[in-house]
Design brief:
The complex is a heterodimer of chains A (279) and B (320). Chain A has 279 residues and is of the alpha/beta class. Chain A is built from 10 helices and 7 strands. Chain A has a 5-stranded parallel beta sheet with strand order 1-2-3-7-6, with helices on both faces. A two-stranded antiparallel ribbon of chain A has the order 4-5. In chain A, helix 9 links the parallel strand 6 and strand 7. In chain A, helix 1 packs antiparallel against helix 10. Chain A is globular. The two termini of chain A are 25 Å apart. Chain B has 2 domains: 167 residues, Thiamin diphosphate (ThDP)-binding fold, Pyr/PP domains (Rossmann fold, 3-Layer(aba) Sandwich), CATH 3.40.50.970; 126 residues, Rossmann fold, CATH 3.40.50.920. Chain B is built from 12 helices and 12 strands. Chain B has a 7-stranded mixed beta sheet with strand order 2-1-3-4-6-5-10, sandwiched between helices. Chain B has a 5-stranded mixed beta sheet with strand order 7-9-8-11-12, sandwiched between helices. In chain B, helix 8 packs across helix 12. Chain B is globular, with a radius of gyration of 19 Å. The N and C termini of chain B lie far apart (45 Å). Classes of the chains: A alpha/beta (279), B alpha/beta (320).
């Protein structure tokens, strides 16, 4: 049976989870499991079905720009890039090692394909809007995708950029919100995130779509459909923090934490069942 | 550039000189973006808005966003001029500056307008920003503080020639003192200018307060102290060879229209620190306080920065 693209993306996402667990064996400290596992399907869909970055023949102004604003999910990007052939095993093996650029939070290195630094939350969308406007003014064909967390939406600079992007009709810009409902200290809805994010984004002039962020079919459709003319697009990807490992899921203490004792083994068994082969 | 241009640029004030430099550069065909956080007219960009709409952008009153937008616009290497009041350009957006200008080395020329005491009559919200201190604390940013209209004009052009981030600190009001009366000198970032020779004392300054240093030197000469005046227009990187040439002086004074913390004086002190041969160094500037609102002249006087106060300070320390 020929696998459809959504199926390929799903398998890719679970392979990413497996890869991240492998990375824990060389890590030197806590890792951001919750926010990295919640965005696995989003990144899998981007790298398998959307971004044109695997085409080595394209020059910089043709290559799509993916910005991980929630830099805490760096390991998810490393695993996706490694599985896509964009990041070597040798480099991946330096993850969290002293002096390595492959650090816990993503740091910009264009030679490696890391378009911007993430981690200082709320910075990525401004940069993405600038990239999108430059493409408009100079007819660059690249498209811009920015991944933020729903907790990150607390940052005021995000809303400055949201207003800017609709004002300038940046229909080459897509914002993806990994809406896993949890931030460092607890549920986003109980901190400052109450109310409908979709309504807010619509009122800011964004073409807003809400999807199951673990369904690659829905993600693919939302990402692939062209933006409404003159409108930037926001995709609210409803996800589960820590998705894929039962004891990670919906527990904010797994935001960043080290695997202890038999936890790696247990997590590995659960992910292996998802992948369909032994870790 | 001749003395007529110097008078013209002086009468335009600091922001007028900025606008002229940017406009002329666009007219000359230089490709760039000109971005402001809703202060384009205050930046002297009126003609840029009319004649170069594709280069111009108003991001609104959103300085943090402005830095990110500017970084995106500069992605293909195109230089971006970005302006706001110095307090908000440098202080509010410091994290964005550190990420996009510092670490990522985006080709942004950030202009902090009306720095120092220029807006002192508005009170502390706009006056005396710690912009030099903040920019010095972010590795990888060239910091330039020009002293008069012609130097602003040349600094803007020099910054555009640099492929990387630059912070230009504008001080001085609507009419600037003319420091370079025959302004055919070259402007080289990182290379300080000796405005006046002298062998006992050296006054080191930057920005529009250089005019006070020149007047203070006259008072010192009348008191028998041979006094050099240095325009350290580039604070980062500071001109180390010039500082080396001052090691044998009896005294140097740094004159900052800025907090003492982290300003030009700090940069000089950090260079001499730990060196065996060094001059006595006094630092003149704002000492850990918020100056009361008032005119530039009033504020200078409350902070010991008038020419007479600078001269007295140096003389008192020479008598120690």
């Amino acid at each position: 049976m020929i696998k459809d693209q959504a199926q390929i993306c799903h398998e890719f996402a679970n392979s990413m989870r497996k890869k991240m667990l492998e990375m824990s064996e060389i890590s030197s400290g806590p890792m951001h499991w919750g926010g990295s596992f919640s965005c696995a399907e989003i990144l899998a869909t981007l790298y398998c079905a959307v971004l044109n970055v695997k085409d080595k023949g394209l020059d910089d102004m043709h290559k799509d720009k993916f910005l991980l604003s929630k830099g805490h999910a760096a390991m998810a990007v490393y695993s996706a890039m490694n599985l896509s052939g964009l990041l070597s095993d040798e480099l991946l093996e330096t993850y969290q090692q002293d002096g390595s650029i492959i650090s816990e939070l993503l740091e910009a290195d264009r030679s490696l394909g890391f378009e911007t630094s993430g981690g200082s939350l709320g910075l990525g969308l401004s940069y993405g809007a600038g990239l999108a406007l430059a493409a408009k003014r100079k007819n660059y064909p690249y498209k811009v995708y920015v991944l933020v967390g729903d907790g990150e939406m607390n940052e005021g600079s995000i809303w400055e950029a949201l207003m800017f992007a609709s004002q300038h009709r940046l229909d080459n810009l897509t914002l993806i919100i990994d809406s896993n409902g949890l931030q460092s200290d607890g549920p986003t809805s109980e901190i400052v995130g109450g109310g409908s994010m979709k309504d807010r984004l619509c009122s800011f002039g964004w073409n807003t779509i809400s999807v199951d962020g673990h369904c690659c079919k829905q993600l693919t459709e939302a990402l692939a459909c062209s933006n409404e003319k003159g409108m930037p697009k926001a995709i609210i990807a409803n996800t589960i923090k820590g998705k894929g490992v039962s004891f990670f899921e919906n527990d904010f203490t797994w935001h960043d934490r080290s695997l202890k004792g038999t936890e790696l083994e247990k997590a590995g068994e659960e992910v292996s069942r998802l992948v369909g082969n032994e870790l | 550039m001749n003395s007529k241009n110097a008078r013209f640029l002086s009468r335009m004030g600091a922001r007028g000189a900025l606008g002229q430099a940017v406009y002329d550069s666009l007219k000359d065909g230089r490709e760039m973006y000109v971005v402001s956080a809703d202060l384009a007219y205050a930046s002297g960009f009126g003609r840029v808005i009319k004649e170069f709409p594709d280069a111009y952008l108003n991001v609104g009153i959103a300085e943090q966003n402005m830095i990110g937008i500017a970084a995106g616009l500069s992605r293909d290497g195109t230089p971006v001029i970005a302006t706001s009041w110095a307090m908000f350009a440098a202080v509010r957006a410091a994290d964005q500056i550190r990420n996009f200008m510092g670490y990522m080395q985006s080709n942004i020329k950030l202009i902090g307008m009306d720095s120092g005491f220029t807006q002192s009559r508005f009170g502390y919200s706009h006056a005396n920003p710690p912009d030099i201190a903040i920019m010095r604390a972010i590795p990888g940013i060239t910091i330039i503080s020009p002293c008069d209209g012609t130097e602003i004009y040349k600094a803007v052009n020099a910054a555009l020639d640099i492929n990387g981030p630059v912070y230009i600190r504008l001080t001085g009001g609507q009419t600037l003192p003319i420091i370079y009366k025959e302004p055919d000198n070259t402007f080289e970032p990182g290379k300080a200018v000796v405005l006046k020779n002298g062998s006992d004392a050296a006054l080191i300054s930057c920005g529009s307060v250089v005019a006070n240093a020149l007047k203070a030197a006259e008072v010192l000469e009348q008191n028998g102290v041979s006094t050099a005046v240095i325009n350290m227009h580039t604070i980062s990187p500071v001109d180390k060879s010039l500082l080396d040439s001052l090691r044998g002086y009896r005294i140097i004074a740094t004159i900052d229209e800025h907090l003492l913390h982290g300003g030009l004086g700090s940069a000089v002190a950090e260079y001499y620190c730990g060196q065996l041969t060094r001059p006595l160094h006094i630092m003149i500037g704002v000492d850990d306080s918020y100056p009361m609102p008032g005119s530039v002249q009033y504020t200078e006087t409350t902070q010991g920065l008038s020419p007479e106060q600078i001269a007295s300070d140096v003389l008192a320390n020479l008598r120690r």
